[in-house]
Amino acid sequence: MDFILPAPPQASVAVAGEAARFPVRRIFCVGRNYAAHAREMGKDPDREPPFFFTKPADAVVDTGATIPYPPETENLHHEIELVVAIGAEGRAVPKEKARDLIWGYGVGIDLTRRDLQTRAKEMGRPWDWGKAFDNSAPCAPLVRRAEAGAIDDARIWLAVDGERRQDASVEELIWDIPEIVSIVSHTMVLRPGDLIYTGTPAGVGAVTPGQRMTGGVGDLPEIDITIGPRG
C-alpha cells in the first residue's frame, strides 16, 4: 500500500523475556475503579457505573525511560494501574468468557495533567488534554497470562523517590478484570493489540522534574520512570 506521507512506526510494548514486542492498537482507561480513589476525587463509587477514556497508542513508553515534564501543566499526577493486554477479538463477550480474550498483563502509569483535567470538568468539556498527551502511558514489559501468576488479589503500589504513595490490592477493584473486559466489548469490538488500563487506587499525587517513579503489581515486572526537565 502506498501513502503520501511516511507511515508512522507501530506503537508497541516490550514482552518479558522475549525479543518480539506486543503491538499496541488502542488504549482504553477505566476511570475511578477503586472506591478509595473515587472518594479522594470527591465522588461516590457506589452510584456510578464504570466509565472510560482513551489515550493514543503512541503514548506508551518503555520502563527505564526519562520522559520530559509535559507542557501546559503545573500539576502532573501519577496513577499506577494494572494493564490488561488483549490478544483475541471479541464482541459482546460475557464476563464468564472474558479471560479468553486476555493475552497478558503488565504494570502501567496513567500520567495526568490534573490541572487541565480539572478545568475541563468545570467547563463541561472532554478530558483529552488532561489525559491523552505525549508519553502519558508508560508500561512495563507484559507477561503472558499463563505466566503471570495470581493477579486478582495482587498488591498494586507506586513509590516516588522510594517513598510509597499508592498501596492497595487488585481485589479492591469495583469492576473486576473480567467485568471490565466484558463491558468494553459490549461498546466496541475488542481486537488484538488493545490495552486496558484498569484504574488506580488511592494516593495519586504530583511528580516534578527529577523525580523517579517505581511501581508494581504482584510478581509482574516493575515499572521505573523518571521525570525529566520540562519539554
From TrEMBL:
Organism: Marivibrio halodurans
Keywords: Hydrolase, Metal-binding
Domain Fumarylacetoacetase-like C-terminal span(s) in chain numbering: 27-227
Protein name: Fumarylacetoacetate hydrolase family protein
Domain of life per record: Bacteria
InterPro entries attached to this UniProt entry: Fumarylacetoacetase-like_C (IPR011234), Fumarylacetoacetase_C_sf (IPR036663)
GO molecular function (one): metal ion binding
Gene3D superfamilies per the UniProt record, alphabetical: Fumarylacetoacetase-like, C-terminal domain
